[in-house]
Each structure stands twice: as structure tokens, then as C-alpha cells.
Amino acid sequence: MKKIILIAVILSLTFTTGCWDMKEINERIFPYSVGLDIVDKKDFKKGRYEITFTYPNINALGKQAIQEDIVYLASIRGNNMFEGASNVSDRLQKPMFLRDLKVVVIPESLARDKNLIKEIIDGLSRDYIVNKVINFVVVKTTAKDFMQTVSKSKKQTEIEGLLYGLLRNEQGSTKFINSTLNSFVKDMYSCGATLVPVARREGEDIIVDSNAVFKDYELIGYLNQEDNRNIGLLTNKTKDLSINTEYEGADLALRTPRPRLKKQLIKSEKNLKIRYSIELRGQMEEYILGRGDQLDNKEKVNDMEKTLEKDLKKSIEKTIEKLQKDLNTDTIGVAEHLYKFNPKIWEEIEDDFDDIFPHIDIDLDINITIRRRGLTK
Amino acid sequence: MKNDLKISHIQLRALIISAVIGVGIISLPNDLANILEKDGWILIVLSALLIFPIIFMINHIFKINPGKDYFQIGEETLGKVIFTICKLLFLAYLIVYCSYEVAILSQLIKAFLLHITPVEIIIFLFVLTSVYISSMEIDIIARAGYFIYPIILIFAGIFFFISLPTADFSNVLPAFQSNFKNIPRGIVSTFFSFTGFEVLLFALPYVEDKKKALKSSMIALGIITFIYLLMFFTTLTQFYLKQLQGQNFSLVMIAKTVDLPGYFLQNLDGVVMAIWILVVFATFAPAFFGAGKILSNTFRTKSHKYFLLGLVPVIYYLALVPKDYIELQRDMLKILNILSFLSIVVIPFLIFIVGIIKRRIKA
Predict the structure, then answer these.
(1) Structural domain of residue B307, as residue ranges?
(2) Residues of B with CB under 8 A from a CB of A
């Protein structure tokens, strides 16, 4: 009797393999990126957005690839991203799984609509599956157009996708500051504003070299690459920086890894004054042949440092003025610094920080040292 | 009381840690942040300080009644009738506790791992698996706890290390800016994070080295406090305060925001959930065992095995009673808080006080 029961149990196991949720990885589609274009209001019935997904073509992977197109594109109408992912099943043979979604492409028209951005951020944060370090990028054309270009780009890679690789910024570009869902939400809470990189097409290349400024979940302006470099310095996000200036008719270039930043509130009676101390130590990258003796002269070297400091300071001051006067957005962490280190002052000004920020005195103290001169004199 | 069961004091320590750290750990940081903002750690320390005398009291009860188990002591000091009521309360607490744990667990497993599998199946399988371990005696459960103990330490360690590269330590500031009037309310809710140490009531009589038992329990309490503090500060360095306050399960959120260089380490929620199931299992088993033991003692049976099987449908049904997350995370928790306070603070306190008075009268 025991044996019969045992055999029955073992046999029953063969019928109960797997479960409701067993899904092989190749039975799912993992989109890299999603783009959301707002459609005309008259045409709202099928959905508010035209949603575009790009996903890797598994058949183009590996040495014995049977297809050429690395990336496929699927476009569908829907009211939100999740509806889009389920609606798209009418043209794809496998279910879409948003777990490895890496990039959200936001066209300018959508970025200017505060409520829609708030909806998207909420949906992405709330979802159990979506990655919380998903990258954002703003484009000035429609998302669909842009994504078509990306998918055809020759630099496209199978594994991570070109756009994600660019935005992740392992290459250490100082021309843009990347933005993830987590950093977007964090910045909105801490400073009320954040930066999202802007991508554009140039010939066959995809270029990311500026940032869009979001204030209170709404796009209000753009910053160029110089501004981004300066903001990177002021928020301590820069890992490696190259600066140069003209010195006595020749180009003087300096490479400074790991800049150091210190913020300090100095005067707190009448007008708030915050000092940003930036310390850069680096090695000379290029000067000009035949002036080796200049580099042996301590005074000359100090003068070079001063010139570099002056140049950088001028540039940063311009950026700060832009932020304070034109955009009135605190993307350089003033509010966060006050909240963390001077909570009593912050409590007083918290409610009308927007009116106070343009008048805050931001003092720059830049200290550049040429530590190494290179292999030749 | 069986005399052949033996638990070493190190096993006791592991048993307490694995029984206390359970379902609540993944939402503890955001609960604390909502009550006391960045000073939430004060609540952890205060709760631990409040648990300290309770453990001391329980230890003392067994010290003055050597060779007896909790039921014998309770009956002798409080009398049969009163103690039966106490036992019923305790039983109710353990059953609701088990149901609550398994209800939260099943909801999260469904959301993160098994999207199509019905919640009923998840609950049923989890409880049924636990029947096996809980039908053993306390020494086996202690050994299982000893086995899960390093997993809990690794679980906490993983969180700490994966979040180090992106940690912003200035997030801990500003300190002492919160409203301290919220402390009493906060302690009520953090107290629940420390429940589970009532396993002492079943385990203490069997500890080999009675002298080291108290010290061991205190070390366990210290380790638990440390792990809770570590988890709280880890989440605090990762998120801005308002962000943290808006979350439901902060630790899972950390696992989902991990982005270490090299693409491979992303979306660790699956791994975290898998380890967390083990952690919950180790919390569930002693409580389930306790419920079985109380029933077997009440009905004077030799083994508690069959009562466990009988409890399966009860826990299954209770876990499915809350219809939505509000009923589950607010209403059920309220009932649980009251029951836990009564059965692990008030009842041992009664036994302790009455015991002392009776001794005085005798003397």
C-alpha cells in the first residue's frame, strides 16, 4: 500500500511541474525604451498618447544571427504606458515585460505639461516591476521620430541599447547631467527643480549635450553644455574635468580629476550669502614647446593658475546668474544645503524661497593647483 | 515538561533574532520616517529599552520556578480559570500574528514574483510548509532559527553594502528637528517590530545553561536593535526624507534603485524577496508552534502536531479576511497591537507580580 502511494505521489509530480507564472526569458519582450507623444485632442478616443517601444530583436543576437535589425520598434495608442504595454499585444506575439525598461523619451510638448509629467512619475514609482533607476531624456522632435533614428543608428548595441549607454554616462561627459527616476523625485523634493538631458540627432549620430530644466514638474528652459559643466561642479557630480584658457597667446589645458566642493553659509543677518569653495588639482595636458622655463618659475605657474581660476569663475558666475535671474531655479543645491545644515534659517524662508533665491549672494572661491606638469619640461 | 529537550544559549540567541525580525523589517524605515522624520532611530532605541525589562521579567519568572514550563507556572500562580483566559488571549494573538504575517507576505510575493498565481495558493503553501517545522519540538525550531540567523545578518549586510556607493550621508541631517510629541504614538507602532521574543516563554525552560540565558537574550536584543538601526540609516542615506515618507516598502525600494557599475546589479527585488521569505518563515514557525502548544496543553494531548493541521484553515481564512491594504495594514495591525500588548506584556507581568506576592505571603 505504501509503495502504491509513493508511486502515485512521484507520478503526480510530473503533472505539477512549473506554476502559473512560469515564463521563459525568451517568451517575453523586454523593451529598452518607451516614448510618449501626445496626440491631438480631437483624436483622444483611442488614447491620449502615441506610445512607442523599442526592444531588442533576439534573433539578431549572437554569431549565428538570422536577422539583421538589432532593434525593433512598436507603436500603439493608449492612455498610459502600462495600457500601451498591454495594447501592443495585438501586434506582438509575446507579452511585453517592463522590468528592464531603461529609458523614457519625453518630447518637449509633453514636458511642458505639468500634470502629465506628474502622472508619469507617479506611475513609474508606484509600479512593482519597473526599475527605479530608469533614465529620462527630453527630445525636441516627437519621441517616435527620435526613436526611429536611434534604432537605425550604426552605433546601436544589442545588449543595453545605444541611448541607455549614452545616458548612463560611464564615459564621464560633463556636457550633460543624467537624470533617473530616483534622482528626479529626489531633486523635486529637495530643490523643487531638476535637470533632464536633451538628446538630438546630428546626421547619423545621437548627441546628448544639453539639459532641460524642470521646475515643479514642468519644463521651463534649457541649459547649454557649459552651464552643465558648471552645475556639475557646483553639485559635486563631476568626476573628471578638463579646463583650458589662453595664456600668453598659447592654449593652456589642465585636466583635473575629482574636484572637491564645500558649501558654507557665511552671513545670515540681512542677505543670505553662501560660499561655494571648489578645489581643483590637476595635471597639465597641453601648453606650447619652448616655454619650459616658465613652468620652472613659481610665480609664473601661480599666474597661470590665477588665469585659469579667473576664467572658470567668470563662466560659473554666468551660469549662476542664468539660474537666479532667468530661470529662478535652484538646481545647485542651495535649498538642500540650508535645510540640512541650517534648519532654523530654512524654516523661516522655506515658504517664500522662490522669491528669495534670486537675491541670495553666491560667493565663489575657486582654487586651482597645477600639481603635475607631465612627462616633458 | 519534557526533560530531554536541550537548547544551547547560542541557539536561544539565534532563535530570538530570527523570531523577532520578520515581515515588518521592509517597511520599518518608512514607518519610522513618517512618525519621527529623521529622528526615527530614537524610537528603535526606546522600544528596545522598553523590551529590556520584559525580557528580564520573563527570565525571572522561570528562575524562581525551576523545572517548570510556562503553562505549569501560569496555572500555579494565576489559577486554572484565569490562566485559561490568558491562554486563549495568547492563542488569539498568535493566530492573528501568523495570519498577518502570511497575508503581507502573500501580497508582496504576488506583486513582485508570482503575478498570476492566486494569493490563496501562496498562503496555503506557505502555511502548509510551516506545519512541518512547527510540528517539531522547540529544540528543532531553535536549530532552524540558528540556521536562518546568518541569513538575516547577510540580508542586512547586503542592503548596507549595495547602497554604500550611492549613499549620501548628509541626508541624516538635520537631526533633532522632529516633533517629539509623536514619540508615544511611535513606540506603539515600533513595539510591534520587536514582538516575537515571546518565543522565550516556550524556549527558556529548556536552555542548558540557565545563567547565560539572560545574557544571551540581551545580546539578541542588541543585535536586533543594531540591525534595525542599520536598516533605518541605510534607507535614510539613500532617499530624501519626503521620498522615504511616500514609500510603502523602503527596503524593496533600495533593492530597486541599486545601480552598481557594470549593469549586472540592477533590480535586486527578486533576490531580496527570496531571502525575505526565509526571514518571514523563521518568524512564522515559532509563533505557529506556540499556537499548537497552547492548544495541546489546553486539551491535554501529548503532541501538538494535529492541532497545527487544524489551524491551517483558520490562519488561511483569517489571512484572507482583510479585503484591501487599508484593512490589512491599518485595521488588522491595530487588533494585533492590542493583542500583543496583552499577551506578551500584561500576562507575564501578572504572573510575575502575583508570583512575588504569593511568595511574600508564604514567607
Answers:
(1) 9-362
(2) 111-118, 170-171, 173-174, 177, 239-243, 253, 256-259, 261, 263, 266-267, 269
Whole-number Å distance between alpha carbons of B321 and B313: 12
Q: Do A21 and B242 touch (CB under 8 A)?
A: no
Closest Cα in chain B to A97: B115
Distance from the A194 Cα atom to the nearest Cα atom in chain B, whole angstroms: 14
Nearest to A49 by CA among A77, A20, A13: A77
Check CB contact under 8 Å for B114 and A21.
yes
3-state DSSP assignment of residue A240:
strand
d(CA B286, CA B61): 20
- Give me the residue from B116, B259, B267 closest to A21, CB to CB: B116
CATH classification at residue B239: 1.20.1740.10
Domains of chain A: total: 2
Domain-located, residue A18: no
Kindly report, residue by residue over A192-230, the tens digit of the pLDDT.
899 999 988 887 788 888 899 999 999 999 999 889 989
- The set of residues, in sequence order, having a beta carbon less than 8 Å from that of B332 and lying 6+ positions away, is B96, B99, B100, B103, B321, B322
Contact assessment for residue A196 and residue A212, using Cβ atoms and an 8 Å cutoff = yes
- Does B179 fall in a domain? yes
Q: Is residue B3 part of a domain?
A: no
Strand-strand pairing, A205-215 and A361-372: unpaired
What's the CA angle centered on B59, arms B56 and B61, to 5 degrees?
110
pTM: 0.90
With b meaning 16 or more CB within 10 Å and e meaning fewer, what string describes B21-49? bbbbbbbbbbbbbbbbbbbbbbbbebbbe
Q: Which one, of B195, B190, B192, lies nearest residue B35 by Cα?
A: B190
C-alpha cell at A169: 554616462
Residue spans of alpha helices (H) in chain A: 2-15, 81-87, 108-111, 114-126, 143-152, 162-168, 181-190, 225-234, 292-296, 298-321, 334-341, 343-349, 353-356
Interchain CB distance below 8 Å, A132 and B257: yes
- Smallest CA-to-CA distance from B358 within B61, B70, B84, B68 is with B61
Residues A63 and A178 in one domain: yes
Indicate whether this complex's ipTM tops 0.90. no
Give the total residue count for chain B.
363
A245 plus A351 within the same structural domain: yes
DSSP-assigned states of every residue in B127-179: HHHHHHHHTS-HHHHHHHHHHHHHHHHHHHHHHHHHHSTT--GGGGPSPS-S-
CA B157, CA B349: separation in Å to the nearest integer? 36
State whether residue A264 sits within 8 Å of chain B by CB: no
Question: Which residues of chain B lie closer than 8 angstroms to A132, CB-CB?
Answer: 253, 256-257
Residue A257 contacts residue A264 (beta carbons within 8 Å):
no
Distance from CA of B195 to the nearest CA of A (A): 28
Q: Taking CA atoms, what residue in A is nearest to B38?
A: A340
Q: Which of A199, A223, A247 is the last residue of a domain?
A: A223
Domain that holds residue A58: 25-223
**Tens of pLDDT, residues A254-265:** 888 888 888 888
Q: Which of A103, A131, A183, A264 to mutate against chain B (most B CBs within 10 Å)? A: A131
Q: Is residue B131 part of a domain?
A: yes
What pLDDT digit, counting tens, does each position of A15-58 carry? 665 566 777 777 888 888 899 998 887 777 778 888 999 888 77
User: Three-state DSSP class for B341?
Assistant: helix
DSSP-H helix ranges across chain B: 9-20, 28-36, 40-64, 70-78, 80-112, 119-134, 138-163, 183-194, 200-203, 210-238, 241-245, 250-257, 269-298, 305-319, 325-326, 332-341, 347-362
